[in-house]
Specification:
By secondary structure, the protein is an alpha/beta fold. It has two domains: 249 residues, 3-Layer(aba) Sandwich (Rossmann fold); 157 residues, Rossmann fold (3-Layer(aba) Sandwich). Helices cover 43% and strands 13% of the residues. The chain has 15 helices and 13 strands. The strands form two sheets. The chain has a seven-stranded parallel beta sheet with strand order 3-2-1-4-5-6-7, sandwiched between helices. Helix 1 packs across helix 15, helix 4 runs parallel beside helix 5 and helix 9 crosses helix 13.
């Protein structure tokens, strides 16, 4: 039985895929510990993993309240330069305390840089998990970001990553090199592309090639496995349906022609109340019911109009197959759930990988992206109406949905991931 140390820094959408992976490794008899914020303790333990707290729930809530977390231009600096930098020593300590030389593997999310650093310090086999293609280092196909739309010439790729390296060093080099100095190691520069993207023995993309084909210059070895699915609020596997609230189940039990529009701007986004109001009004103009999924009730009108229902959380795997369309922020997990459900999407991206995911959905023909400042009730009503009336969009969504039929719950993905981790351990 090997020891597997999973380190995840992020929100619900960041944590969920690692629960599916961790459960698979537990079922194989491995000792799996997950390092995540206490907000997710119930989910982690419900998935059968040991839980180790990273930071505090109060720190997590404070970060959600800070408008910089979802700011169009300041989000990455706040996330990496403040939140992640502060957590690096704690991630290193998590690995140091629990590692067993020759019998431990580290699995790290893209922002769990302290765990990747620790894997290098203690010479442990490490896997860097990319949940979205925007975090893959490619000069041939740089990500679509707020200030770097996809229509710009791809020749700007090298410049994009030089700038990214400069920013990343400014945000994290002092902390990372401080830890390295404590271990008698020299400082490193170009942390992103020459250290964190190159140090781990294995990089895994938890998205399929049809969503983001390899441009041919990703670091080797990189394996694209496909989407994983895990959205239970109590850590249940994807093929074990979590009971829905009775009122919500009744709301969803309608004829296909009257299925609701769903809107969810993410569990870590407290600052998109205008989108909820606009979708609610758009639904009224279209004669459509609206289901609002958000834990942030202050974002909503009070009282809710009669055509609207609110739930703080519900598994997309249960909700979206009974829905007409989803308006969302563009998180990759939400995007994948919509593609699997075969419904159109209107993506209103704020930061991080969200703009890139919106571009990829549009390229597939399954939806459109729309800046939040343009997401008015009038424009949303027109866009939603056009998407629902389009035979081309319906065909594209059906085609995307069909891609999941061979592995609807992502079981093959996590089995392949488990095989790769065991291969990595065998070579250690």
């Amino acid at each position: 039985m090997a020891r597997v140390l999973i380190s995840v820094f992020g929100s619900t959408g960041d944590v969920h895929p690692f629960l599916a992976v961790g459960r698979e490794l537990v079922q194989r008899g491995h000792d799996v510990a997950c390092h995540a914020n206490p907000t997710f303790e119930r989910k982690v333990r419900g998935a059968g993993l040991d839980f180790v707290p990273l930071g505090t729930a109060e720190e997590y809530d404070d970060a959600l309240r800070d408008r910089r977390l979802m700011h169009r231009t300041r989000a990455s600096r706040f996330l990496l330069g403040e939140l992640v930098a502060r957590a690096v020593p704690e991630m290193v300590e998590f690995v140091r305390e629990r590692q067993r030389p020759g019998d431990t593997v580290v699995i790290a999310s893209a922002t769990a840089v302290g765990a990747i650093l620790a894997g290098d310090l203690y010479r442990l086999p490490t896997t860097f998990v990319h949940l979205a293609p925007a975090s893959m280092p490619s000069e041939r196909d740089p990500p679509t970001l707020h200030l770097i739309p996809r229509w710009l010439p791809r020749a700007i790729g090298p410049a994009v990553w030089r700038v990214a390296d400069h920013l990343y060093d400014g945000w994290l080099a002092e902390t990372v090199n401080g830890v390295r100095a404590e271990h008698g190691l020299p400082p490193v520069r170009r942390l992103l592309t020459r250290y964190f993207f190159r140090t781990p023995e294995l990089r895994v993309g938890l998205f399929p090639e049809w969503f983001a084909p390899s441009p041919g210059d990703w670091p080797e070895p990189t394996e694209l496995l496909g989407f994983t699915f895990q959205d239970s609020d109590v850590g249940l596997p994807d093929d074990d349906p979590e009971p829905l609230d009775g009122d919500l189940e009744a709301f969803l039990a309608a004829e296909p022609t009257s299925r609701p529009i769903v809107v969810s701007m993410g569990t870590a986004n407290m600052h998109s109340g205008c989108v909820y109001h606009a979708v609610i009004e758009a639904g009224a103009r279209l004669g459509r019911r609206v289901l609002v999924l958000t834990p942030f009730v202050d974002d909503l009108p009070d009282p809710l109009p009669s055509h609207v229902m609110h739930a703080p959380y519900a598994p997309f795997s249960r909700v979206l197959p009974e829905s007409a369309l989803l308006v969302h922020h563009g998180g990759v997990g939400t995007t994948a759930q919509s593609l699997r459900a075969g419904i159109p999407q209107v993506i209103v991206p704020r930061a991080y990988d969200q703009h890139d995911n919106a571009e990829r959905v549009a390229k597939l023909g399954c939806g459109v992206g729309m800046p939040q400042q343009l997401a008015t009730a009038s424009r949303l009503a027109s866009t939603i109406g056009d998407l629902l009336a389009s035979e081309e969009v319906a065909c594209a969504c059906t085609h995307a949905q069909a891609r999941f039929r061979g592995d609807p719950h992502g079981e093959r993905v996590v089995r392949r991931f488990g095989d790769m981790i065991e291969d990595l351990l065998a070579k250690a």
